[in-house]
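[step 3/7] fold_predict: job queued, chain A
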Amino acid sequence: MVSSILILVMLLSSILLIIGFIILIKSAHLLINGACSLAKRFSISELAIGLTIVAFGTSAPELIVNIISSAGGYNEICFGNILGSNIFNTLVVLGIAGIIYPISIQKNTVKKEIPFLLIGTIFVLALSNNFVFDGNTLSRLDGMFLILSLILFFAYVVGIAKEKITEEVKVKLHSFPISILYIAIGIVGLFFGGEMVVRNAVFLAQLMNVSEKFIAITIVALGTSLPELVTSIIAITKKHHGLAIGNVIGSNLFNIFLVLGVSSIIKPIVFPVELNIDFYFLIIITIILFITMFTGKRRKLERTESIMFIILYIGYVVFLFYRK
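[step 4/7] structure written:
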């Protein structure tokens, strides 16, 4: 009798978790549509839309999940969600997109955006471990440094937005009131969807006696990264190569700078040192992404390299399963 009730409770919690993911994805979609339409209406560069608004929209689920997790003191979910999402974005999102169609990478992305992402990831690793000072807490001051880093990224985007654009992103234009309504509904939906995901993920982890970090790095990270996956797949099928990879790199930057920055400003986050290995893995695969730009055809993520990315992710998940 007790086991039957437990199974029903787990089933209900799993259903609520899935519903939370669906709300997150739909809300992010509305937020992207509204924000892009608004930017288009005010004649903002479509390149800037791809690197900032689309990237922010697809990172919004991570932001909401982390805000709720930070306020609740779920440190492993805060860090695990970001590390898991960035690893998923790099290996699975780019991997699947590159298998569908080899991705051509712009020179600026290779010379500036990927190195900036690599340096940013190492910077967050150093702050989280407090390599200069004692302790392993991402403080409010650290969070301010991360927000400042994001502002520097924005300055870079403003600079390249002035350059001639060879690839434009198609944006559906809505009326001003509809655009605002989409943005508002998206933000509200992201909040409620994020709360459902966090609460049910933690509950399931406790029921199954599985660590929060395992749930965060796998299930929560996968769920919050679905907008990036859908966006990049749609982009690559329409031959928008810049948007496909720009969405991933931009989202990863938003995750480490904005999401962790805001989370630590709300409440300092204690970094679980056992996640260092995941940080190192993220740094390694970012370096691998950079190297692939010089192997085979220059500045192109080919199908064989994309398949290698998927294999790396499968190996990583197997490692997580045995580490849990």
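[step 5/7] annotate
DSSP finds ten helices and four strands in the chain.
Strands lie at 103-104, 137-138, 269-270, 300-301.
exit 0
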